[in-house]
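Hey, quick one: can you model this chain's 3D structure?
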Amino acid sequence: MLTGKCHSLVAVTRLTALAVLLVGGAIGCKEKTAAKNTAPLREQQLVRIQSFFVTKEKQANALAAKDGKKLDSEIQDCFNAGIKGDWKSMSKKYKALNEQRSSGHPRESLRTASSQCLLEAGGSYELIASGEPKYIQTWERDIFDSIPTGSIYFGATDAGRFLITAFSKSHVKGDPFFTLTQNALADGTYLEYLRSMYGGTISTPTGEDSQRCFNDYLADAQKRLASNQLRPGEDVKVEGGRVQVSGQVAVMAINGLLVKTIFDKNPDREFYIEESFPLDWMYSYLEPHGLILKINREPLPEISDKVIDQDREYWSSRMNSMIGDWLTNETPIKVVTDFVEKVYLRKDLNGFKGDPLFVQSDDTQKMFSKLRSSVGGLYVWRMEHATSKEEKARMARAADLAFRQALALCPYSPEVVYRYVQLANSENRISDAILVASTCAKLDPDNKQIKDLIQQLKLQMPKGE
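Sure thing. Here's the predicted structure for all 465 residues.
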């Protein structure tokens, strides 16, 4: 629970601890050949990660020495295994340390700036080990190619943060750009870590900035509590005359204020973000930018047709190679769900014109679908804030395509399903919403939330349908 002390955020901001990722599923002869062909690329990527372990180990020891300490022996052992390329041992040690980190009561050495170095090194390995090499390469190349040198980039998902730190020319020097994560800004040890790397080149939040953002959020939350305007999932209470807040929504709201602080303090830098959790202040500044989003220096009156066309062309190109070129602006949602059932549910690739390796890799599907959904979320925000019927309709069309594409990429993603259902529901397309949710339920039959959603939607259906 968060009260009036900023440092109490540390225990609840362990948002970046990784679970061990697994890739499964039967693979046919053609897919085995394709997987074999990507093996050399995976080896190249692992060599890069091994070099990254060397760099991060030096950084971690320097940070520990700065505090007059030696690096925790278990952390050092984990680094040593990675430097040697002993990935089995490293992964085992890293998993154990992450379990301690996320236990709620991690030991002191796991709450230091130096421990962030291992989090990024180990996190990058787990993604390389489990992901599809060709799409990891696509991911990092598309992001690096799209961001100008010297910019500030916020990577939120594991892939968005860890892969970009690992494949940078120098994460420590911000070469080619400065990589941060918005998810951990409320953690004082992470801010210390950022200051140790970037303090001399970009402006990062001070302890006073962090406390101010925390206090500003508390004051705002208390006002909204009094007027019954809390956000969904926001846990705010007043006990003994003190405001107490807890949960992810509160942490991300504070993180959002700290992102704004960095944005305001670096007016000469360009900003880009890979979204994990919507940050309200940012939406009016955002526009699609390939895989990610650009944060413009001033709010945009609207997203231009040119930008929407570029966004559609980018994602169409990416999707053509992944699942085929069949999904367009005019493709009905029924065609999307039929494709999903054939390819993802029945595993029938007869006539499939995409990449079998893509539909065999859950992690790859989630990576790309998540970011397409984020762009769709931006279009929905624009739709909801449109000042004319024409603008509202234009944004609704863009959002609908983005969500249909995200569903085709990962139809069992709860985030994508809920976002599409909300959009369809707002347009009184209840049958489309039920179709999407029901298709997800076939792929994830044990998901009680999806089952409940279907029942709620059915209650909204007009009688006789």
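One thing worth noting: Strands lie at 152-155, 178-180, 235-239, 242-246, 271-274, 286-289, 292-295.
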